[in-house]
Amino acid sequence: MQHLLDPINDDMPCGDYLKNNRSAYRELRNSYNKALSAFRTMMESPDSMQNDELTETNRICWVELSALCEKNLASVSKDVEVFCWFITAQIFSDKPLENLRDSLETLRKVIEQYWEYLNPRPPVEKLKSDDTAGQQKEWAEIRVKPLIQLIGESEGSGLLYMPLQNIILAGQTTYNQYCVAEISGKAHELKSQLIAYLPDERAEICERIELLIGIQQSIEMLDLLVNERCHEAGASGISFLFLKHTFEALINAFQFLFAEEIMPWPGQPVPEEEGGILSEVNGPVPDASGIESALVNNDVVTSPPLNTAVPQSASDTISPAFAANEHIGNRDQAFNELRKIADFFQRTEPHSPVYMLLERAIRWGYMSLPELLQEMVGENQPVMDRISQLAGLENTEKTAIPDVSAVAATPLAREQDAQILQKPPQPQKAVETITDDTQEPPSSGGPEKSSGVSDFEW
């Protein structure tokens, strides 16, 4: 899919606004609707899902859609909606998870490289805003809107959700069949059956798990990038939460079935035997002065050899060379140091979301609390109202407090206080006071949930 990163032409790297090319858009839309119809027909009943003719018709429709989208993205218009259809079509390809991962990563790179020109980008005369800032915001909102059909707006929604139900776990057992077994209380019985496939299918199962983890990482990086671009334009971001939940559930199914049999789990480091890393835990820590110097001077740092281990109590032994050369006197200086680290990771590990997470931390650090909550919550106004109420953001007026300084300063008040302190305790009266005035404590369950607050993700 590397060719999809090439510009369509020098003047307009992302090509035309597709809605102005009605014949091209109509052809794409018809192909997409045809593929959706074939999928719904195939999924109508358990019998139809086993029908070879319906299954083959569905596959052909999605393969045709994929080819048409790919041609359009390469030569007509790099359009986000067409990317969403192209990504969905990959689940019906010969290598569903691998192609899904690659297509998501391609979309991320296109957004990173061509955001300013990315379609849909209607002409200025079709926008409501007259000023540059307003136009940039409007374009950003128009660009990300098609992504919502891909990522979903609720649990079990989005273009990818239903096709992913047919992903094979082991043998010919699909994720949907696992979900049915889980609901009916037969998950452990199914687990025993699928473990029997491990001797012959271990490599394929491990590859599926690794690909799912890779897709998770691609979604996380896409989420960070899209919302960062939206914020830069002053537009509201979108939530990838439900799409993330879909892949978390898929990986959890593999973990339930095979975690006890597949060790180490894919994506985790292989523990070394005696004489390797574990036997050198108490060894010396390499001098970090060279690393610090490279960070400050924006040089690439080479990692220490793999057989060099950090002690378990690293905080007690790490060289003070990691400390900053100068005292950090204010938050701006602190954020500048954080920017240096983010730049370092962007150069040396561009595939990793570390640098984007650091940039997000910097951006959040310069937001007011209402702005930060708005970005996190998005368009979910009931959640925003509830948080504002609980945090006291809806009313910043100060409540008047009676002036007690005059009373406290009088000799009479001090004398009365002294008399009260000298009086012996009166247990019975104290108990009556507590009984009369004390309200029943709230239950451990806390306040009744408001709409959506329990689903809020920090």
UniProtKB/TrEMBL annotation:
Region (Disordered): 415-458
ImpA N-terminal domain: residues covered: 5-151
Highest taxon in the source lineage: Bacteria
Pfam families, A to Z: ImpA_N (PF06812)
Low complexity: compositionally biased ranges: 441-458
Name of the protein in question: Type VI secretion system ImpA family N-terminal domain-containing protein
Organism listed in the record: Oceanospirillum sediminis
